[in-house]
Design a protein that fits this description.
Largest sheet: 4 strands, antiparallel
Shape: globular
Number of strands: 28
Structural class: mainly beta
Number of helices: 1
Helix content: under 10%
Length: 338
């Protein structure tokens, strides 16, 4: 994983998080409640419906959580890296075949109950998304037999190559097509049916590290993770509506669905920013209690969940720290249920 942070965390599922003495009172209270919530997993209150899928690489587990961020199910799964939820209540899980990133990847389809439906063996992969038909979209790294390639994977495991091109980095469904980013700073829109046809392309420069469906029909969010690290909102024809330097060492972002608004977390410093319409910096939250945040997801009532190695950092719509969930070994992704 690019720029992955190797931070050590406790192995016990219910171990409280340690809080540094220099944190403000609000952060201490929020993390204390997080620790209590982690300890409360065996309480008498029944958990609610699944609202979130998470992947804990070092614990070899996928967890589902309810809307209050209580764990509802623990699913054994070797080296899970990413999760993407499906409309039927299940999820696709991208994982490593073992602890070696050069070993290869596995793509698992899980039911709403966490049962394994399909397992697909792939080369190492760099990104996972799910399209409107609950089919997986992945970027598979090059091998001796093929360059990097974007794949569509059906629930029974059949593969449909969408495009083969060295330097592919990320993928997203978009307006009855598939959007791709490259290490050379290019954004491509390709036919979703696997014809290999490139429908549109744009050269933004840098290195495209993340891409996602935008707030309006056919638009795209794009993040350049090199140099100035710019956030783009592209029109359906891939022209630039606006762009802004994010000012963070961010590798991914969390768009707010159907809004011109996106959250980003710094992977090194404990900082989060939210940009709104026309790239306006709406919020900057610094001095958060955990470092190593990376992947994030827009959450209920305008908030955000950020995956740090040992915990989920939960901020509300105003950027205030809320109770999250702790006790993870090395959390790598958070994916809201659909």
């Amino acid at each position: 994983m690019e720029d992955e942070l190797d931070l050590s965390c406790g192995r016990a599922r219910n171990r409280p998080l340690r809080v540094a003495g220099f944190l403000g009172a609000g952060a201490v209270c929020a993390l204390a409640l997080t620790a209590i919530r982690a300890l409360a997993g065996g309480g008498t209150a029944a958990p609610g419906p699944v609202a979130l899928w998470t992947t804990d690489r070092d614990a070899h587990a996928v967890y589902t959580l309810d809307a209050d961020l209580f764990v509802t199910r623990t699913i054994p799964c070797g080296w899970p890296l990413q999760a993407s939820a499906c409309r039927d209540g299940g999820a696709w899980i991208l994982r490593s075949g073992n602890g070696n990133p050069n070993f290869g990847g596995r793509l698992d389809r899980r039911s709403a109950a966490g049962e394994l439906i399909t397992e697909v063996t792939l080369a190492a992969c760099t990104d996972l998304e799910v399209d409107e038909r609950d089919e997986a979209l992945v970027i598979e790294s090059k091998t001796s037999s093929h360059p990097d390639r974007a794949l569509r994977v059906r629930i029974e495991g059949s593969l449909f190559p969408l495009l083969e091109l060295n330097g592919l980095t990320c993928v997203a469904p978009s307006h009855a097509s598939v959007a791709l980013g490259t290490a050379a700073g290019k954004v491509l829109r390709v036919d979703a049916q696997g014809s290999g046809a490139i429908l549109a392309q744009a050269q933004l420069g840098g290195r495209i590290g993340d891409i996602a469906r935008g707030p309006y029909g056919g638009t795209l969010w794009v993040l350049d993770v090199s140099g100035a690290r710019r956030l783009y909102l592209l029109e359906a024809d891939l022209s630039v509506r606006w762009s802004v330097p994010v000012g963070l060492r961010a590798l991914h972002f969390a768009p707010v669905p159907n809004e011109e608004r996106v959250w980003l977390a710094d992977t090194v410093e404990p900082r989060v920013r939210r940009f709104g319409p026309s790239g306006w910096l709406e919020l900057e939250i610094a001095g958060l209690p955990l470092v190593g945040m990376d992947r994030a997801a827009a959450w209920l009532h305008g908030g955000v969940l950020c995956a740090a190695p040992g915990a989920i950092v939960h901020l509300d719509a105003d950027g205030h720290l809320q109770s999250g969930q702790g006790g993870f070994d090395f959390l790598t992704d958070v994916a809201p249920a659909r």
